[in-house]
Amino acid sequence: MNIQAVLARVDTLPPMPAVAxxxxxxxxxxxxxxxxxxxxxxxxxAMAANILRLANSPFYGLRAEVTxxxxxxxxxxxxxxxxxxxxxxxxRYLAPAQEGYALASGELWKSSLATAVAAELVAxxxxxxxxxxxYTAGLLQDVGKIVLADxxxxxxxxxxxxxxxxxxxxxxxxxxxVGIPHPEVGALLLERWNFPEALVEAVRCxxxxxxxxxxxxxxxxxxxxNALTMTAGVGLGADGLAYGLDEESAxxxxxxxxxKVDELLAELAAKLRAAESLFSARDG
Amino acid sequence: MGAVHVxxxxxxxxxxxxxxxxxxYALGSCVGIALYDPHLRxxxxxxxxxxxxxxxxISREFNPYMYADTGLYSLLQQLLALGCRxxxxxxxxxxxxxxxxxxALLDIGKRNADASRDLLGREGILLAGESLGGTVGxxxxxxxxxxxxxxRLLGRGEEVL
Lengths: 284, 161
Prior knowledge:
The complex is a heterodimer. By secondary structure, chain A is mainly alpha-helical. Chain A has helices at about 5-10, 20-25, 35-40, 45-55, 70-75, 80-95, 105-125, 130-140, 145-165, 170-175, 180-190, 195-205, 215-230, 245-250, 260-275, 275-280.
């Protein structure tokens, strides 16, 4: 088991800038000072420029070009701007290729964005109270793969054997071979970065939402968002669809109604088509 | 060197140039349907996401390529317009994966595979090869020179249909 080696690798990653967590807090603060928040963002000129570029992409449907962060917050709302900022900040982690998972450059980024978009959709279906938190949970749920990819690479044949012959799910097979599965590594990363504990938990539990205690509804949303994204085939890697579906989560979201899954997938596909301008924006 | 036509999700491309290749990536539960006329060395590839257009919502613009039924008929029409003959067409299928211990709540892959086979049977089109099911993601390419379909199973290798 390589748990110590995996943990050592977690320590070598450049930390997420502290502004990420500050922004998440601000987005939930009813008394927030928008000018102050805009100031935090503008302190990092490259980040601010990238946020403006994304805010002006067709996906957000603004009629006029926004030229300042302050203007973006008033037209899109602070929560959307924070979502965009999190995308910009996480793209440097999620954009590179992850060969252990057979993910070419940009594929993990694509599936992370798609899961974020799916999480917003599922949040609406479940009437989850804060769709923008669901979005962030979806965006970051597979961040552990960036640490685990090299370890998975060395254990790939054994993982595939456990999945094919013994019916283990991919993350169970990761636990047996590498010692720790990617959702737990992702949760560790977010903990290091001081993310809110409900988000940490949603990442840790996205393949077994029944294990969540702090915000079980968020874990269920993350789980279903992941299931829909895999089904749609966006950014699939070597793990493919080798994960179990938590039926209780599916029922809680009303997915057993005839045609409901079909309808959600169709809606996700339409949203992803509109989001294509974001997929290609990762390099900026 | 011919052109490489890339088919997106819920999309379809055809070509009458035998030097061309038609390819689609990211088949999860989606099914890729390749149709090929060996006489004309023309063909096309359709990437469907859902089995049945009757379940479509009314709120969105309708995309026929999203569904196996309307998608297959659109692909057929385009091939006939290129001069292909239905009785010569040969079909190959790939995709239709499902999550582990797939539950009836989310068995889109199986439903896509079943619908695609049924539709081909109903139209009397020969199904000459398939790589369907399991939990593995796939990509698929059709080379028009000889009608060879190559399926790449992500993280696992290739299959030639």
